[in-house]
Design goal:
With 126 residues, the protein is an alpha/beta fold. Helices cover 45% and strands 24% of the residues. It holds the Pfam family Thioredoxin. One of its GO terms (molecular function) is protein-disulfide reductase activity.
């Protein structure tokens, strides 16, 4: 019971940190409505594991702060939203997905330097 409470607290704190840093959490119910809007969206897809994903989440959140107002940034937990992850073809984690006007344009697999991710984002901006 204590382990479940600890895991729940960990997940909630991760959610709060991500949202406070500019990453809006999406799930199976909200993904299409939020990411499908006109413009450029970036989605960081991770799982319940905490290790390297926290670093990447922090770096993507910092990027979200720099692009506030011109790009929407989201986080998707593949473990909690398996339907959306499967529909998007997510087979390994982490992955960064780039959308333009609701359509998937780029799927960047694994942990890559943030300058690579930022370069891909720049290529999508007008």
């Amino acid at each position: 019971m204590i382990k479940k409470a600890f895991l729940l607290a960990l997940l909630l704190s991760s959610f709060s940190v991500a949202q406070a840093q500019g990453l809006q959490r999406v799930d199976d119910n909200s993904f299409d409505e939020l990411v499908g809007n006109p413009g450029v969206s970036v989605v960081l897809v991770t799982g319940h594991q905490t290790g390297p994903y926290r670093q990447m989440q922090s770096e993507v959140a910092a990027m979200a702060s720099r692009y506030r107002g011109s790009v929407r940034f989201f986080s998707l937990d593949a473990d909690s939203s398996p339907s959306t992850a499967s529909r998007l073809g997510v087979r390994s984690l982490p992955v960064v997905l780039f959308f333009s006007n609701g359509g998937l344009i780029i799927q960047q697999l694994g942990e890559v330097p943030m300058d690579v991710i930022e370069g891909q984002l720049q290529a999508l901006l007008p």
